[in-house]
Amino acid sequence: MNSLLKKISLSIFIAILVAIATLQWLPNTSAPNVTFTTIEGKKIAMADLKGKVVLVNFWATNCLSCIKEMPALINMYKRYHQRGLELVAVAMPDDPPAQVLHYATHQNLPFPVMHDGFAEMTKEFGDVNVTPTTFIFDKQGHRLQRTIGTLDFVKLDELLNAKLANMGAVK
């Protein structure tokens, strides 16, 4: 009986250790506490965006997939911004700042754009190193999804309509 109790106690102890280790390795599912500084010098704190659905898109001017999806991001932003969507486009650290500014100005990007010159955002969002990479957070700041590669805009429309449902569907 004493041996059985020891085995059960050991099993429970191991299960607790495994649970603790698993919790430590789970990805952070909340938005990082960061402040974006746009190419115009405006500061946008992630904490100030609570109450909005937030899309953070990591991109680069030399990323063909990023440039290809940019018109769809612009369209999506225009369709959903008034309903509570915020989008922040974060240019990668190795992207030349003048090139980012030129692209954002020339394309008349309607959403905030920042250049992550010191790689602060790429680190805070889990060492982003592939473009495009997109994070979507709900109104409470919980991560809904992380997409590496081009977005599926049909599924994104469905998600945004569901998360911004209090203002009606967008056609």
Keywords:
171 residues; alpha/beta; Glutaredoxin; five-stranded mixed beta sheet; two-stranded antiparallel sheet
Task: Tell me the CATH architecture.
Answer: 3-Layer(aba) Sandwich
Number of domains: 1
Order of neighbouring strands in the sheet with most strands:
5-4-3-6-7
On the 0 to 100 scale, the average pLDDT is: 88
Q: How many β-strands, per DSSP?
A: 7
**Fraction of residues in H or I helices:** 25-40%
Coarse structural class: alpha/beta
Strand fraction band?
15-25%
Distance between the termini: 68 Å
Instruction: Give the CATH level 1 class.
Output: Alpha Beta
Query: What do we call the CATH homologous superfamily?
Result: Glutaredoxin
> Which fold name fills CATH's third level, the topology?
Glutaredoxin
Main sheet? Answer: 5 strands, mixed
- Compute the CA-based radius of gyration: 20 Å
Question: What count of helical segments does DSSP give?
Answer: 5
Spans of at least 5 consecutive residues with low confidence: 17-26
Shape: globular
Please provide a written account of the structure.
The strands form 2 sheets. This protein has a 5-stranded mixed β-sheet, with helices on one face. The chain has a two-stranded antiparallel ribbon with strand order 1-2. The protein has one domain: 3-Layer(aba) Sandwich (Glutaredoxin), CATH 3.40.30. By secondary structure, it is of the alpha/beta class. The chain is built from 5 helices and 7 strands.
